[in-house]
Design brief:
262 residues; mainly beta; Jelly Rolls; seven-stranded antiparallel sheet; 4 helices; globular
Length: 262
């Protein structure tokens, strides 16, 4: 004869089995399949905002101050040859004190002395964000690394042109698609001598970044559909427009910008 407790226990077990069986045979809830982005525009739109802007090579909004200062085709001197007006030291750790030399090699110059690592200056006034041209003349005085790090806008983001990096010879743009100046399509190697004036020319449009050195075209980089951004680290402090060096002393005797003629 079974005890009352055995009967109750068996009934509970049977009820549990029937319940689990019913759950297993119940129809699963319907879920909608989310379509994967297919086009380039769809893939970019799905990115986080901070990354999405690195694919946008034209400013999203006009800047009235830029329109007022930079008339198309007219050069604006950022270094007036009289002072450091418009420039301030970049907040790098171990940055050197930027100097104004009234007579360096026969002309006034903006001098960035050697810092512990990075040293440089930021331009404090607005600059165009696309369809612009930069010209500068610079001389490496001492040091063994990049004598010119020109950080500039590219639409809604920024990039840096490196001259003389990685021991003194590397030329390139940091960064493209996650790769810095030493490992992307813009990488070049050139010997730069001390106490020689070099003329650098840069043009930025929504489609292309082009660079010349002493009249010779070095970089002609298509950027449509490419991610353009700064290299991670202190160099980001140079944005939106700055000049920097790495353990190197450099003199600049000309820095000027113009919006491209219509």
């Amino acid at each position: 004869m079974q005890s009352p407790y055995s009967v109750i226990l068996r009934s509970l077990v049977t009820a549990c089995v029937l319940t689990l069986s019913a759950c297993g045979t119940a129809a699963a809830p319907k879920t909608e399949k989310v379509a994967e982005p297919q086009t380039f525009e769809e893939r970019v739109a799905a990115l986080p905002p901070e990354v999405r802007k690195e694919y946008v090579h034209a400013p999203l909004k006009p800047d009235p101050k830029v329109d007022e200062i930079y008339k198309p085709g007219k050069w604006i001197d950022l270094f007036d040859g009289k002072s450091l007006k418009g420039w301030m030291p970049t907040d790098y750790a171990g940055n050197s004190e930027i100097e104004y030399a009234k007579d360096y090699d026969g002309r006034p110059a903006l001098v960035i002395p050697l810092g512990e690592l990075l040293a440089g200056v930021n331009y404090t006034n607005p600059v165009p964000r696309t369809n612009f041209e930069v010209e500068l003349e610079a001389q490496k005085i001492t040091g063994n690394d990049f004598w010119c790090g020109l950080t500039f806008p590219v639409g809604e983001t920024h990039a840096t042109l490196i001259m003389g990096g990685w021991g003194g010879a590397l030329v390139g743009i940091s960064s493209l698609d996650g790769s810095d100046a030493s490992e992307n399509d813009t990488t070049e190697y050139i010997r730069f001598d001390n106490k020689v004036w070099y003329k650098v020319r840069l043009i930025v449009t929504p489609k292309k970044i082009t660079v010349w050195l002493d009249g010779t075209k070095l970089i002609d980089q298509e950027i449509e559909g490419r991610r353009v951004h700064m290299r991670f680290g202190e160099i980001e402090l140079s944005a939106p427009f700055g000049l920097s060096t790495f353990q190197t002393t450099t003199a600049y005797r000309k820095v000027r910008v113009r919006r491209l003629p219509k």
